[in-house]
Amino acid sequence: MAQAYKRILLKISGEALVGHQGFGIDPAMVEQVCGEIAAIRQAGVEIAVVVGGGNIFRGFKASTSGNMDRVTADHMGMLATVINSLAMQDRLEKRGVYTRVMSAIRMEQVAETFIRRRAIRHLEKGRVIIFAAGTGNPYFTTDTAGVLRAIEIKADAIFKATKVDGVYDSDPVTNPKAKKFDRITYDEVLSRHLKVMDATAIALCAENKLPLVVFNLLTPGNLQRAVEGVAVGTVVGE
After folding, report:
1. Which whole number is the average pLDDT over 134-160?
2. Exposed (0-12), middle (13-18) or buried (19+): which is 164, by Cβ within 10 Å?
3. pLDDT higher for 135 or 220?
4. Any residues with CB less than 8 A from the CB of 202 and at least 6 apart, and which?
5. How far apart are alpha carbons 179 and 99 in whole angstroms?
6. What is the pLDDT of residues 4-52, one digit of tens each?
7. pTM of the entire predicted model
8. Which of 83, 234, 102 is nearest to 158 (CA)?
9. Is-contact 169 221, C-beta < 8 A?
10. Closest CA to 141 of 223, 203, 67, 88
11. Domain residue extents for the chain
12. Which strands form 234-237's sheet, in the order they lie side by side?
């Protein structure tokens, strides 16, 4: 396959793994997502993954609605991402894809500690890396963690997997007349307050000129088409 990108970071929300269960991890969804990842790895694309933990625990929500200390809640959310990362690693390796989970929080029994040079070496050897535990710091989302890791490993772009087929000027679920953008700038995303990623993540993309591709992962083959440069979603750039 002709590749528009050689090395990418795929950002997946924890909710993407829920499937029809409403909570937790749906094995069928993990299988589908890992199948998409395996296909582009086998085609020669170097890929790293950041997966959220919202299907298990959302720190910000717990701190605001449950009167829980924000730092404690965020640490719990980071641990939820580790659970999702291990589930994805298991499914990828059952497909014969060599995988490493690298955690921002030290937990040597289940994951390697994140070291940038080691991560790059894993990619060069053809392994899929799943970055877990966010940045290891409270108050930062997994969107920001994904952008940070993408910059650190010198990814060509960050791919944001969603349940819709790109960026719209309003919520397409509630507004049937919502307009989809094929391409939009970082500044427009921020000025229009579009909910693509949080503002910190978008600003980090802009500062480092990191392209952001937003697409629907639930459509089979979309990730592969996006990596080939086919217009299957929205590109956020300069």
Report:
1. 97
2. middle
3. 135
4. 186, 189, 190, 196, 212, 236
5. 38
6. 899 999 999 998 898 777 789 999 999 999 999 999 999 999 999 999 9
7. 0.93
8. 234
9. no
10. 203
11. 7-237
12. 112-113, 99-103, 128-132, 46-51, 7-12, 157-162, 212-216, 234-237, 183-185
Q: SS3 letters for 96-133?
A: CCCEEEEECCCCCCCCEECCHHHHHHHHHCCCEEEEEC
Question: Could you tell me if 91 and 34 are in contact, meaning their C-beta atoms sit under 8 angstroms apart?
Answer: yes
Rounded distance between C-alpha atoms, residue 73 and residue 76, angstroms: 5
CA-closest candidate to residue 158, choices 193, 114, 117, 204: 204
Residue range 130-152: mean pLDDT, rounded:
97
Instruction: Please name the residue that has the structure tokens 């269960």.
Output: 21
Into which CATH architecture does domain 7-237 fall? 3-Layer(aba) Sandwich (3.40)
pLDDT band at 157 (very low <50, low <70, confident <90, very high): very high
Over the chain, what is the mean pLDDT?
A: 92
Alpha carbons 163 and 15: distance in angstroms, whole number: 10
Place of tokens 């750039």: 237
